[in-house]
């Protein structure tokens, strides 16, 4: 995946993309894992989530202030808001004059279906 992202860092183009990232520190380490290693792993995962936003040039990072690993049950309103904004943004893009005229051009050149 790393090599693919290096070759095409914005693979999603300008599609709307919101990444939710937890702001709260990781919970205590599981047995057999040092606290230091656990915190290092948690920070690495957090940085990966931040970096994945670059897959789209039309991205937004939302930091969940009161969430741990599971943002959905901790702050469901953030998840719902992010989904609504992506859907609205996609609908706006889809209905933009540029996209509408492109769709009309494609329709003009498609053969009639029997």
Tell me about this structure.
This protein is mostly helical and 114 residues long. The protein has one domain. 53% of the residues lie in helices and 11% in strands. The chain is built from 5 helices and 2 strands; from the N terminus they run αβαβααα. It has a two-stranded parallel ribbon with strand order 1-2. The longest helix is centred in the C-terminal third of the chain and has 19 residues. About 6% of the residues have low confidence.
Give a summary of the structure in a few sentences.
By secondary structure, the protein is mainly α.
What is the topological layout?
Layout: H1 2-7, E1 17-22, H2 35-52, E2 59-64, H3 71-74, H4 76-94, H5 97-109
Parallel strand pairs: 1-2
Provide the descriptors you would attach to this structure in a database record.
flat; 5 helices; two-stranded parallel sheet; 114 residues; mainly alpha; 53% helix
Largest sheet: 2 strands, parallel
Q: What's the average pLDDT? A: 80
The level of helicity is 40-55%
Q: Which class best fits the helix and strand makeup?
A: mainly alpha
Number of helices: 5
Strand order of the largest sheet: 1-2
The ordered string of helix (H) and strand (E) elements is HEHEHHH
Radius of gyration: 20 Å
Strand content: 5-15%
Given the C-alpha coordinates, what overall shape results? flat
Counting DSSP E segments of at least 2 residues, the number of strands comes to 2
What's the domain count?
1
Poorly predicted parts: 105-111
How far is the first residue's CA from the last residue's CA?
43 Å
């Amino acid at each position: 995946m790393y090599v693919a992202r290096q070759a095409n860092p914005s693979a999603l183009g300008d599609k709307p993309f919101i990444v939710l990232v937890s702001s709260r520190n990781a919970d205590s380490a599981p047995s057999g894992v040092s606290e230091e290693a656990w915190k290092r792993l948690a920070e690495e995962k957090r940085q990966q989530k931040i970096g994945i936003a670059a897959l789209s040039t039309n991205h937004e990072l939302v930091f969940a202030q009161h969430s741990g690993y599971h943002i959905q049950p901790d702050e469901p309103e953030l998840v719902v808001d992010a989904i609504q904004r992506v859907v609205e943004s996609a609908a706006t893009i889809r209905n933009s004059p540029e996209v509408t005229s492109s769709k009309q051009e494609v329709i003009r050149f498609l053969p009639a279906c029997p």
